[in-house]
Amino acid sequence: MSATALSQELSKTEKLNGTNFALWKRRIGRILDEENVDYVLDKSIPTKPVDDDSLTVIREYQKWEKYNRNVRNCLLTFMEPDIEVVFEEYNNAKDMFEAIKETYGKITETYVQLLIEKYYGCEMREEDSVIDHVSKMNMIAKELAVTRNPIPEKIQVSTILNSLPSSWNSIVTTLNLSGREVSIKNLPTLLGLEVERKRKKSQPSSLMVITKPTETSQVAEKRGLLLLPLLQTPIRIFHIEISDQR
């Protein structure tokens, strides 16, 4: 996984909120595996070395201390504040993770019901990003699938479209009448295209108006230029006397 891919994975990782443990655990696992520090959660906590231990043992423990601190901070970073304050008392990442798993790892009927209510009650606000909204609902659907309560794809598409604000009604109608096959995979793209199309329509078109001089004005202009030298030339008046020679 490249640095860019890791960054994208981090951006998609929803914070632990008490109802998304399974999905949160998978994403955290991918991140730690990519950084080669997942062993901090998998292996037993090493014993602190004493003075007569070998240099290798001491260095391994120092390495574990560094990675334990990194993993612990990673776990706390991806928790909602009210959950973070509960688990920050754990100094070791492994102990913290085991406590989290004990608290939120059990799938109960109440947990499933909360997920279902969260999914069908999810509504997008006017100021929200439609891409982020669809991604959020997809995460909840995946979490339900993990609990063996999958939502059929057609129902997912319909539920997401119905969760959009009323200002999106025309876009939803356009999608329904377009004849396109709408799926969970292409829904974000289709909605994004419709948003862009709507944005372009709402922008005022800027037209450059060029006024071409009329023939009359051109002629008048030429005449003015022709008369100008005449007007600027001094006029001499000659007085001629006619004598009577009779």
UniProtKB/TrEMBL annotation:
Q: Which organism encodes this protein? A: Nelumbo nucifera (Sacred lotus)
Any idea what this protein is called? Uncharacterized protein LOC104612672
Q: Which domain of life is it from?
A: Eukaryota
